[in-house]
Structure formats: structure tokens, C-alpha cells
Design brief:
Number of helices: 4
Distance between the termini: 34 Å
Mean pLDDT: 92
Strand order of the largest sheet: 7-4-6-5-9
Order of helices and strands: HEEHEEHEEHEEE
Number of strands: 9
Largest sheet: 5 strands, antiparallel
């Protein structure tokens, strides 16, 4: 790996950690063409999420998914499973109608059939407040919560962007939310 590439990956790792990670006590790992699992040490205790794991996620050695902490998260994700760009636009419209600026709303491909619509916060936000925001947007946009899931949760991880989806091999890129 050339030095410039390593510096860029280190900067991306720091930013991903800052934006996404608020809970490090466990995570989900997915190797290409392999099953998803929670890595554990010899005693059966889940491994902690390190920046080295994030670095290798960005190198596309594997993909990781993260959990929210027991009470709070630094971001909210609307996990759009129906693959509909109209659903993504409805979520964005709902968030902007509530006063959130469009430039704070980010959309990435999930790698499978859907999208992740995300917003990041400068501090931890209680999960119940994030769920209230999610519920307001879902109701306002008349969306089915079974097709647009709330993430992250302490018991339900969300896969991070910029790596490879284990089953499809697709890279989970950010996309222009206007499209």
C-alpha cells in the first residue's frame, strides 16, 4: 500500500469512527462470500471494535456492521429495504419538512437491494428521541416501517458504507440524494 493511500485510509477511518461509532463492545463482520458473525475471543466474549477493524473495512477486506449503545447513538439511519428511490426522496422530504438541512442528509447504497438514509449529530442522542424522529418521518411520508427500518439499535446492527456487501459483492457507495 502506498503512503498516500494509507494516509487517506487513516483519515477516512478517523472520520468514520467520529460519525458512526459510539459503541465498541461488539460488532458484526462479514467476509466476502461468507456468513455474518459477531467475532469473539477464546473465552467467547465479543471482540471490541477497533480502528484497525474500521481501516480494514475501508480496505474492503470485509464489511462490518455496528450496533448502537444501550441508550444512544451519534447517527440515525433509515434502512430502506424496498429499493425505491421514491421512498428515499420521501424520507428526505420528511426530514427537510422538519427543518433539517438537505446537506446534512446522506444516502448510500446498502449493497443489497436498498439504501441507507442517514443523518449525523455532533453528540450522542438518546435512542428513544431518534426513534421519535424516525416515527414522525415514517408517518408523515406514509411509509411502511417494515420496509424502512430504524437503525442503529442495541440489538440490530447496521452495515457501514464504503465496503463490499458480503453476498452481492457490490460496493456500498454514497449516492447523490437528489437522484
Amino acid at each position: 500500500m502506498i503512503e498516500m493511500e494509507k494516509e487517506l485510509l487513516n483519515a477516512m477511518t478517523r472520520k468514520m469512527s467520529e460519525l458512526y461509532v459510539s459503541y465498541r463492545k461488539r460488532y458484526v463482520l462479514s467476509k466476502p462470500d461468507g456468513p455474518m458473525f459477531v467475532p469473539k475471543n477464546r473465552e467467547g466474549v465479543p471482540c471490541v471494535l477497533t480502528d484497525r477493524v474500521l481501516f480494514n473495512h475501508l480496505r474492503r477486506k470485509y464489511a462490518i456492521a455496528i450496533f448502537a449503545g444501550p441508550r444512544a447513538s451519534r447517527f440515525i439511519c433509515f434502512d430502506v429495504d424496498d429499493g425505491s428511490a421514491d421512498t428515499v426522496r420521501a424520507i428526505i422530504h420528511g426530514l427537510t419538512a422538519l427543518g433539517f438541512p438537505k446537506d446534512r442528509i446522506h444516502v448510500s447504497l446498502s449493497g443489497g437491494k436498498g439504501y441507507h438514509v442517514e443523518m449525523f449529530f455532533d453528540r450522542l442522542v438518546y435512542t428513544n428521541r431518534l426513534f421519535t424522529l424516525y416515527s414522525m418521518v415514517i408517518r408523515q411520508a406514509h411509509l411502511d416501517p417494515r420496509k424502512v427500518e430504524f437503525r442503529p439499535l442495541p440489538g440490530n446492527a447496521i452495515k457501514l458504507p464504503l465496503s463490499i456487501h458480503g453476498k452481492t459483492g457490490n460496493v456500498c457507495w454514497f449516492v447523490d440524494p437528489k437522484t
